[in-house]
Amino acid sequence: MSPSRRQALVSKIGEFPLIRALTRGFSPPGPRTLIGMGDDAALLAHPSSAHIVISTDLLVENIHFSKHTSSFFDLGYKAAVANLSDIAAMGAIPTYILVAVALPSHVRYGDWKDLYRGLSVPCKAHGVQLVGGDTSASHSSLFLAITILGQVKPGQTLTRGGAQEGDIIYVSGSLGNSAAGLAYLTHHPSHGKISKLRQPIKFLVRRHLQPTPRIELGRLLSSRRLASSALDLSDGLSGDIQHLCRQSQVGALIQESSLPMSRHLIAYASEVNIDPLPWALHGGEEYELLFTVSPKKQHRLELAAKHLRIPTTAIGVITSRRSGVQIVHQDGKTQKLVSQSYVHFSE
Amino acid sequence: MSPSRRQALVSKIGEFPLIRALTRGFSPPGPRTLIGMGDDAALLAHPSSAHIVISTDLLVENIHFSKHTSSFFDLGYKAAVANLSDIAAMGAIPTYILVAVALPSHVRYGDWKDLYRGLSVPCKAHGVQLVGGDTSASHSSLFLAITILGQVKPGQTLTRGGAQEGDIIYVSGSLGNSAAGLAYLTHHPSHGKISKLRQPIKFLVRRHLQPTPRIELGRLLSSRRLASSALDLSDGLSGDIQHLCRQSQVGALIQESSLPMSRHLIAYASEVNIDPLPWALHGGEEYELLFTVSPKKQHRLELAAKHLRIPTTAIGVITSRRSGVQIVHQDGKTQKLVSQSYVHFSE
User: Fold this and answer.
1) DSSP state of A276
2) Going by DSSP bridges, is the β-strand pair B93-104/B129-138 parallel, antiparallel, or unpaired?
C-alpha cells in the first residue's frame, strides 16, 4: 500500500473497494460458504449433524479499550480473541465471523486495514471466515460489534450450568497477566513494539494485547466429556466464578494458595512493589477457561491436558449453594469472595 | 413498572435483571433453542434440510437516526425491520436475533425498555426469538448492532446476482413514503403520537418509523422460484438498482412514469409544493423489495401477489451491462440514473 493510500481518509475510498480489501486476511471461503459478503445476507450450508453456537460481543472506545494502550491491530486482535473465547467456552469449533464497525471520520485507511488485519490473525489461525458485517461513520467514538458462529455435535456442549457439589474447579494458563500488562501500558502508553519490550513486561503486555483463545482445550473438554461446566474468564475470576455458580446453583471454595501465577507476573509485581494477588483474583480479559471436573475424571483430564501441553490448575472445589462463593486465604482464614469485576454500567 | 423504576438510571439496575426484563416481549424459546441468553453463547438446533442466512446491521445515533425524529420505541422497531428486511430479500424465514447496544449513561431504564419493546414487536410478529446480545455503556452516542438469523431451503434463495437481460423489474408497495415522512418529522420534531397525526402525514410518518418487512413476499418469490434476483430498498431505488445490476452484471431501464407513489405521498407533496419524484427515486429506508422476474413468469407473479394482497408494480426492464442504469423521464428523454443514496462515509 502506498503511503498516500494509507493516509487517505476512509471517506474517500468508498465502501465496496474497502470491504474487498479488508476480507483478504481471513480464511478463504470454503464449500459451505454459498454466499459471503456483498448480498443482503450470507448464506451458509450447515452440517446436519451439528448444532449452531452463536454469540455477539460489543467493544466501545474508552469503555473496553483505549487508543492510549492499544493500536488498531491490537484492538482487532483482542476483539477476535474475545469472541473465539466464547466459542471455546462452549466446547465448539468456530466457523464464521461478522464485523460491524463504526469509525470516527478522522480514521485513516491504514488504521482500518490494521484493525481488520488484527481481527484476521487469530481468525485465520482457527479457520474462521469473515462472511458479513456493516460499516458506518461515527461522530464520536469507535464501536466494534462482532458476531461469531461455531458448531458443535449434539451432547458435546459445555455450559455454565452443570457443576456439581464435589467437582474440582480448574483454570487454564495463569491468572493476572492481562491486568498486570494493562497496568504497565497505562503508565507507559507509548511503549513501541511488543517485541522490543524487555521481560517480564513483554510477556504481560502480550497476554493483555494478544491473548490466546482456548479452542483446543474447549474441544478436549467437550468431545471427551471431561468437564461438567465451563466459561471463559473475561470479567475476572472473582466475577466469573459467581456466574458459573449462579447458573449451576452451587457454591465454590477457592484456594488462594493454588491460584496459578506466572513467573513474569511475580517478577513484575516485585519490581513495582505490588501484591499480584488482586490481579490474579479480579483482573479481567484473561480469556482462560474456568471449568469444573468430576473427581472421577480428574486423572483423565490432567493426562489429556498434559498431552496437549495446555497448563491446567485445580484451584478449588464446588460446594453447596448455601455456602456461597468463598476463598481460603494463605493464612487459613475463609472469607466470602466478592466480585470486583469491572462493571460496564457504573459511571 | 413504577414511575421511579422507569426513571432509574440503567447503571443502578444491573445487567442480569435488565436482560431478563428485556427478553420478555419476544417470541418464547422454541424446542430448537437449546440455550438462549445467559451462557457464553446461544446453542441452536438447526434443521438439517435448511441453509443458514445471517446478516448484521449497525445503527449509529446522528448517522442513521436522531432522537429528534424517533423515540426509543421507534428506533427499536425500525432496527428490527431493517434486519428482517434483509432476511426477506434472501427469500428466507427469520428465526433468531442478537442485539448489541451501547447506551449513554444518562439513558433511563424506561427508555431502554421502550427500545427493546420496539425491537420485539416486529420480531414477535414473525416468530423471531432474542437469543443473545451484549450491553455496554457509551461515553457518547447510542449504538445498536443487530445480527439476524434465518433459514431457507437449498435452491430457494433470492440473491442480487441472477437478473437476466429482458427480465421485468418490480418493486413492492409504493416509493418515497419514508423519505417524505422523515421530511415532515425533521420540521416537526415534537409531533406526539403517530395515531394523533392527520392524514396524509400519519401514513407517511408511520411508513418512516414503522415500515413493513416483506417477509411473505420474499417467501413467495423464493419458494415458487418467481424472481431471478432481489434486494431490499434501504439506500433508495437509484442506489439499490446499481447494487443489483453490479452483482448481476446487467444494466437497467427504469420508467419514471411507472414508479408507484401512494395517494398520501402525492397529497402531501402537493400541500408542501414539492415534487415527490426525488423522494420516490432516491429516498432510503423503504424496506420494499426490488426484484426481477422473467417475462415467462410475469403472469404467475402478478396473480400470486394479488392473491396475497401484496402490491407489486413493474417499473422497468433489465438491459445489457454496457447500457448501464438509465431512466426514461415522463417527456420520453432517457438519462443515466445517478445514485443519490445517502453515503455513510461522506462528512
Assistant:
1) S
2) parallel
Of the CA atoms within 13 Å of residue A2, those in its CB half-sphere come to 3
A32 touching chain B per CB within 8 A: no
* Residues sharing a CB contact under 8 Å with residue A66, sequence separation 6 or more, in sequence order: none
Report the alpha-carbon distance of residue B288 to residue B293 in Å, rounded: 16
Instruction: Count CB atoms within 10 A of the CB of residue B193.
Output: 8
pLDDT of A265 reads: 98
- CA distances from residue A207 to A74, A173, A288, B105, B193 in whole angstroms, order as listed: 11, 11, 11, 30, 53
Q: ipTM, 2 decimals? A: 0.89
The ranges assigned to domains in chain A are 3-152, 168-336
Beta partners for B101?
B135, B144
The upper half-sphere exposure of residue A152, i.e. CA atoms within 13 Å in the direction of its Cβ, equals 33
Residue with grid cell 417527456, as numbered in its chain = B331
| Beta-strand relationship, A93-104 and A129-138 | parallel
pLDDT along chain A (347 residues), means of 10: 53 66 80 84 88 94 84 94 96 96 85 92 95 87 94 93 97 97 88 86 95 96 96 94 96 98 97 95 95 98 96 98 96 93 41
CA B285 to chain CA centroid, nearest Å? 6
A152 touching chain B per CB within 8 A: yes
Q: Distance (Å, rounded) from C-alpha A171 to C-alpha A235?
A: 14
The answer, yes or no, to whether residue B343 has pLDDT greater than 60, is no
Q: What are phi and psi of B189, to 5 degrees?
A: -60, -35
- Segment 284-343 of chain A within 8 Å of chain B by CB: none
Partnered with residue A99 across adjacent β-strands are A133, A146
CA distance A345 to chain B (A): 4
Question: What CATH superfamily classification does A168-336 receive?
Answer: PurM-like C-terminal domain (3.90.650.10)
Domain A3-152 has CATH 3.90.1150.10: no
In this complex, do A43 and B62 lie within 8 Å of one another by their Cβ atoms?
Answer: no
User: Cα(A121)–Cα(B103) distance, rounded to whole angstroms?
Assistant: 30
Q: For residue range B189-220, what is the model confidence (pLDDT) as tens digits?
A: 776 788 899 999 999 999 999 999 999 999 99
Is residue A271 less than 8 Å (CB to CB) from chain B?
Answer: no
Interface contact flag, A56 B133, Cβ < 8 Å: yes
Measured distance CA(B50)–CA(B73) in Å, rounded: 33
Nearest to A62 by CA among B77, B102, B228: B102
CA distance B311 to A93: 45
Nearest CB partner across the interface for B159, out of A15, A39, A154:
A39
What's the pLDDT at B68?
Answer: 81
Cβ neighbours of residue A330 closer than 8 Å, sequence gap 6 or more = A256, A257
| Residue to substitute from A35, A53, A56, A57, interface B, most B β-carbons within 10 A | A56
